[in-house]
Amino acid sequence: RIIPTRDFSWKENAWGAWQLGLRLSYVDLDHGSANGGRMTEATAGLNWWWNRYLRWMFNYNYAVVEGGSTPGHLQVLQARIQLMY
Description:
Blueprint: E1 17-31, E2 34-49, E3 54-66, E4 72-83
Antiparallel strand pairs: 1-2, 2-3, 3-4
């Protein structure tokens, strides 16, 4: 767990801690008689730690499926809040 040096606070102009993550994934979806093609996915994630107990998480995923019966593109934007105690 990340513990910010200064917790988020409007009064003190403190922004907590930021964390950036990047990922590239590849999967072959063909197996036996299944013809799913190939998928390449890129993910960018941003975590904003307000304090040691609260984290906001934002992810953007972009995937490309080539070959198979339904090739195409996929975009996903996710947001989550995690409360730890």
